[in-house]
Write a structure and sequence with these properties.
- This protein is an alpha/beta fold.
- It has helices at 13-38, 44-73, 78-103, 140-151, 165-176, 191-198, 211-222, 246-258, 278-292, 308-323, 358-361, 377-385, 400-409, 444-450, 476-485; strands spanning 2-5, 8-11, 106-108, 118-125, 128-132, 155-159, 184-187, 204-208, 228-231, 237-240, 270-274, 327-331, 347-351, 368-374, 392-396, 414-417, 438-439, 452-459.
- It is built from 15 helices and 18 strands.
- The strands form 4 sheets. The protein has a 7-stranded mixed beta sheet with strand order 12-13-14-11-10-15-16, with helices on both faces.
- The longest helix has 30 residues, at 44-73.
- The relative contact order is 0.13.
């Protein structure tokens, strides 16, 4: 695309910048690959130094990062961003404490038939890892994979989201202050850069984002046979049992849904509520929300929707539900009109929902919470199983037998019992999806394994106990071995 200027054709500066960044991709990739082959197995001390450097940078830059996130969102609670940074820092600390143990080769049994031999699995860095981060948590969802990749000894190219340009600038400055680009490089750019990034022949590629984009990422990676980890979204259900204290359930669901204005991949997407308790839930939820966010119109603790496109999408869900007969309850403590230009969207409860509504077909990813009544736990389980497998199930139930029925009878990336979204920051739990909500894991030990090649090493000593299996066949010792082991 070009535009005229004083009789000459002037190239669009955005396109020029995109082309420069695409050219930079290949040179960075080759530089990181060369650096990896120069030192392909960093020892535990080096990995700890890298993690210490990353943690120190996060702490030093946390105020600038919080200000940048808020600027990109139009307003995002500084305390929510501090919580995001805090969980990232604690994840780095956890990896640093355990990386030496994670690196140790694991001993495996060779079996009686292979007596005198040894078998071990060595955990080797894969090489150059690519990480594509999303806009909703641009810090935690970039630093988390970066932590795992560095703990596993890799070089990393990090593609930041186009929706958070200010965050990207600060992240670039922060990481460049502690790592050379041959080890960790930050990539900026729009869709064209993202497509070029996903086509690089990485040794591993981790993508966090929507299911639809995840399919495109996987197709691009397939050309290079690049292994992928896909952290996607989906409609994460929340089940409330028929006897759990409603004030407790509503408060914790409200925390999980209102945090970051619902722009969280594991946030409650819809609530399955006992039919006779729907009104009790809406009253308790409204009370909890008012306690957390009084005077919503001027409350800086409540985050805005990230951009106008996402804001219009969410309003479209409400218009569609309203047209199909839903009852919509707007939660706006203070009862002051919200400035639409601010992109601050009140939390809405939606009852009398129908399966054909867009908010029941698509991931909501915002402050809208449909409430679906059910009559018994088997009906709730069927409702979940008739839909694509979610990233998370939030289950509010104090009955151990009923909890086990849900755990055994459903599939999801994870389950959060009597809480919402907190499983993401549990230090030693893997994080990942299943089916439409993703594949593979990161965080903690599973994250180290994701970015490591598991090299099987089999060793035989001078004494060759396998020689009776060599040709010529049919000797008495070989016959005895077959008789002993073929049973």
């Amino acid at each position: 695309m070009e535009k005229r200027g004083k009789g000459v054709m002037a190239a669009d500066p955005i396109i020029i910048q995109e082309e420069k960044e695409i050219q930079r991709l290949e040179s960075l990739f080759q530089a990181q690959r060369a650096d990896f082959f120069a030192a392909p197995m960093p020892d535990a001390n080096q990995r700890r130094r890298d993690l210490d450097a990353l943690r120190g940078a996060m702490v030093a830059f946390h105020k600038r990062l919080a200000a940048a996130v808020s600027e990109d969102f139009g307003n995002r609670s500084i305390h929510e961003t501090y919580a995001e940074v805090m969980s990232s820092v604690q994840g780095i600390r956890y990896a640093r404490r355990h990386v030496r143990r994670w690196m140790r080769p694991s001993r495996r049994r060779a079996g009686l038939l292979m007596a005198t031999t040894t078998s071990r699995v060595y955990y080797q860095p894969k090489g150059v890892a690519g990480v594509i981060a999303p806009w909703n948590y641009p810090l935690a969802l970039s630093i988390g994979p970066l932590t795992c990749a560095l703990a596993a000894g890799n070089r990393v190219m990090l593609k930041m989201p186009e929706a958070t340009p200010r965050v990207n600038e600060v992240m670039h400055e922060m990481l460049a202050s502690v790592f050379p680009e041959e080890k960790v490089a930050v990539i900026h750019g729009e869709v064209a850069v993202g497509k070029a990034f996903s086509k690089l022949p990485f040794d591993h590629l981790l993508f966090t984002g929507s299911t639809d984009v995840g399919r495109h990422i996987m197709r691009a990676a397939a050309d290079n046979l690049t292994p992928v980890t896909l952290e996607l979204g989906g409609k994460s259900p929340t089940i409330i049992s028929d006897d759990v204290p409603m004030s407790m359930a509503a408060e914790r669901i409200c925390f999980g849904k209102a945090f970051n204005a619902g722009q969280t991949c594991v946030a409650p997407d819809y609530v399955l509520c006992p039919r006779g308790r729907v009104e009790e839930f809406t009253r308790a939820f409204e009370k909890a929300f008012a306690a957390m966010y009084p005077d919503l119109h001027k409350n800086l603790d409540y985050t805005c929707i990230v951009n106008e496109r996402q804001h219009r999408r969410l309003l479209g869900y409400l218009d569609d539900a309203r047209a199909m007969g839903a009852e919509i309850i707007e939660l706006n403590p203070g009862n002051q009109r919200l400035d639409p230009l601010s992109r601050k969207l009140a939390l809405h409860l939606v009852t009398n929902v129908k399966p054909g509504m867009r908010l029941m077909q698509e991931e909501i990813f915002g402050p809208i919470l449909p409430v679906v009544p059910y009559d018994d736990i088997d009906e709730a389980i069927r409702f979940i199983n008739e839909r694509p497998r979610p990233l998370a199930i939030n289950l509010f139930d104090h009955n151990a037998e009923r909890r086990q029925r849900v755990l055994d009878g459903t599939h999801s990336g994870g389950v959060c019992v009597n809480d919402a979204i907190s499983q993401f920051i549990a230090e030693d739990l893997p994080f990942g999806g299943v089916g439409d909500s993703g594949m593979g894991h990161y965080h903690a030990y599973e994250g180290f394994l994701t970015f490591s090649h598991h090299k099987a090493v089999f060793s035989r000593p001078r004494l060759n106990t396998a020689k009776p299996l060599y040709a010529p066949h049919g000797g008495w010792l070989q016959k005895l071995i077959f008789k002993l082991f073929l049973r």
